[in-house]
Structures are given as structure tokens and as C-alpha cells.
Design goal:
With 190 residues, the chain is mainly beta. The protein has three helices and 13 strands. It has one domain: Lipocalin.
């Protein structure tokens, strides 16, 4: 009987979250407290380096959890929801680099338990799988996952190599795009 009561009480601490974030354009997504952001650089004519970024305008996060851990975390978005605020760059990215018509979705899955801390000062390395262009690639996220009242806040980043992800080089004759992209994220799960 004791075991039944303990299991019954523990079941109230379990939860499932599915949250969809949606923004109308680059500007709105860049100003939001909830975002997924890509950053890189291009060098024109071998001398002038400029940075550029892109935001995911629509994404969904789902997870299961309890008071101390998140589990079965999935982040999913359409490849065509990435917006760099440059329509010609976006079209090339959708058509040539991401092959977005063929590989519609990009997903990040975390199968291990992720600790929820009481402070944002504790960072953790989280193994994940990035599904892009029809293939799975292991990545490691550096993230802070913590409680702020009834909200779970998640902030973090990782670096990905286009070459290691088998993504075609988006460079053109006069502009070389850096192979490494920074992926940054910040979300509030309620």
C-alpha cells in the first residue's frame, strides 16, 4: 500500500510540455525572449568580413519531465522558417544549402535526462542529435536549464560545421561563408 501511495504522489509531479513559438518576420523573432538563432560570417573578396544571422520564425518544443529533470526533448521546425532578413540569401539557403523542399524539417532530439537547476549559474553539456537534410548527426549543447518560479528557462548554444553536417558550401565566387555556425537558443517553458 505504501508503494502505491508513493507512486500516486509522484505521478502528480510528472508533466508533458508542448509549446509552439511563432513570429511573423525576422524583426519580431529577433526581439523575442524566446528564440533559436544562427550566426556566421562571410568574407567578400578575401578582405571584408561581415557577420550575419538568422532566426527561426516558427518552432515547436516538446518534453516530458518532473520537478528535477526534462526528458524526451524534441525541437522541430521547418527549414523554410529560418529568416536571415535577406530574401536572396534565404532562397539560396532553402534551395541549395538545406534542400528545404526535399528535407522539410530540422529536428534536435535529446534522449538523456536534463537536470533542471534552481539557478541559472550552472551550465551543463547535453548530448543531442541534429536531424538535418535527412541525416542524423551527434552534437553537444552547452545549456543552462533552471527554474524561475513556475517557468523552466533554457539558454544555450553550440557550434556546428557545415562540412561535418554534409551541407553544401553556400559560398559564391566573391564571398566565402565560414564553415562554423553558432546556434544560440533561449526559451521559456510553461
Amino acid at each position: 500500500m505504501k508503494m502505491f501511495i508513493i507512486l500516486f504522489l509522484l505521478s502528480f509531479n510528472n508533466f508533458a510540455i508542448t509549446t509552439t513559438y511563432s513570429f511573423k518576420d525576422y524583426e519580431e523573432s529577433s526581439k523575442s525572449a524566446n528564440y533559436i538563432k544562427l550566426e556566421s560570417e562571410s568574407t567578400k573578396l578575401g578582405i571584408l568580413t561581415t557577420s550575419f544571422d538568422g532566426f527561426v520564425k516558427r518552432f515547436q518544443i516538446s518534453a516530458k519531465g518532473d520537478h528535477n529533470f526534462l526528458r524526451n526533448i524534441e525541437v522541430k521546425f521547418e527549414a523554410k522558417s529560418i529568416d536571415t532578413d535577406n530574401s536572396s540569401r534565404d532562397e539560396k539557403m532553402y534551395e541549395q544549402t538545406l534542400s528545404a523542399d526535399k528535407f522539410k524539417y530540422i529536428e534536435i532530439k535529446i534522449n538523456s535526462a536534463v537536470r533542471i537547476f534552481d539557478t541559472k549559474k550552472i551550465s551543463q553539456r547535453i548530448p543531442a542529435v541534429l536531424h538535418i537534410r535527412g541525416k542524423d548527426f551527434p552534437i553537444t549543447l552547452q545549456a543552462n536549464v533552471y527554474k524561475d518560479g513556475n517557468i523552466i528557462k533554457v539558454t544555450g548554444n553550440t557550434q556546428v560545421s557545415l562540412q561535418k553536417l554534409e551541407i553544401p558550401d553556400p559560398s559564391i565566387a566573391i564571398a566565402k561563408v565560414r564553415d562554423l555556425f553558432n546556434l544560440k537558443f533561449q526559451v521559456e517553458l510553461k
